[in-house]
Amino acid sequence: MTHKLELGLDTFGDVTFDADGRPLAQPQVLRNVVAEAVLADQVGLDFFGIGEHHRADFAVSAPEVVLAAIAGQTSRIRLGSAVTVLSSDDPVRVYQRFATLDAVSSGRAEIILGRGSFTESFPLFGLDLGDYEQLFEEKLELFTELLKEQPVTWSGQTRAALNDQTVFPPTESGAIKTWIGVGGSPESVIRAAHYGLPLMLAIIGGAPLAFAPLVDLYHRALAQFEKPTLPIGEHSPGYIAETDAQARDEMWPHYEAMQNRIGRERGWGPATRERFEQDAGPDGAVFVGSPETVATKIATVVQGLGLSRFDLKYSIGTLPHEKLMNSIELFGTRVAPLVREELGYACPERLG
């Protein structure tokens, strides 16, 4: 039986260092993200996702604008968010922006909706973190109605009601592929199944195969809600170089600095090389190493979790743009063919 597997890349537009070890200005980082996506298209990868943040260490606060710039310089790669923080946005505007992206990219837009792991957007847009759950639940309910591209009647507590309202522009296909991004909450998995949306697992630590019970829960919930079988994807960090030692040594100092910076905000202990090596090992969630090592690890989790897509979060804190470009090229030209060869998977159907 021939299957389809998509291999993609995600970035948060991490502010990187230049050759002298100084941070680049955010405008240059944004231009570099566009160049990275263009290379991803050239080397045959299937998806490029950009996350939304509102802080000094990540340059992208408006993913759709960057994705539109990428759309104008690419021809086939699918383009989406990773993730869109729906709780602090307006569902109608999110739909309109991605429907517009879908139009200018000739049908290549996707959305990954989530609550996000950072909370800066809530005070920025005047929202109360005490309403965290209600904001996401209500806005997701409305968004799933908008995806039907029919007049919407909806009311709730978090925005103005809609009464038989048509939202423009419609897409040419009649739908925008929309995923729910989850970290590890069973409630979030069930919510994705309830709304009949594909599941994107953000696995950034521990053992990816330990998420198998959540995958099983998703399948059981889909059946209970009488929904069809839907795709499951994984988003995990990683970096590729010619050898395992080179990849780990180049990634580690930037990964350590990023983990410690975020850890100070969240009360984590300091990152250690020992823990990094554990996560970089065969059973861990960091996909770092030679093309052969990374391909084997991806093939293992694709098979073990029944994935339809694997997205490598390739930007690692301040790791320089030039090294990221090399990692992207290796991912597309060497890792992707090895994964598909090992699993006997076909290349996904391409648009146009």
TrEMBL record:
<dbReference type="InterPro" id="IPR036661">
    <property type="entry name" value="Luciferase-like_sf"/>
</dbReference>
<dbReference type="InterPro" id="IPR022290">
    <property type="entry name" value="LLM_Atu2307-like"/>
</dbReference>
<dbReference type="Pfam" id="PF00296">
    <property type="entry name" value="Bac_luciferase"/>
</dbReference>
<keyword id="KW-0560">Oxidoreductase</keyword>
<dbReference type="InterPro" id="IPR050766">
    <property type="entry name" value="Bact_Lucif_Oxidored"/>
</dbReference>
<dbReference type="GO" id="GO:0016705">
    <property type="term" value="F:oxidoreductase activity, acting on paired donors, with incorporation or reduction of molecular oxygen"/>
</dbReference>
<keyword id="KW-0503">Monooxygenase</keyword>
<feature type="domain" description="Luciferase-like">
    <location>
        <begin position="18"/>
        <end position="306"/>
    </location>
</feature>
<dbReference type="InterPro" id="IPR011251">
    <property type="entry name" value="Luciferase-like_dom"/>
</dbReference>
<dbReference type="GO" id="GO:0005829">
    <property type="term" value="C:cytosol"/>
</dbReference>
<dbReference type="GO" id="GO:0004497">
    <property type="term" value="F:monooxygenase activity"/>
</dbReference>
<protein>
    <submittedName>
        <fullName>LLM class flavin-dependent oxidoreductase</fullName>
    </submittedName>
</protein>
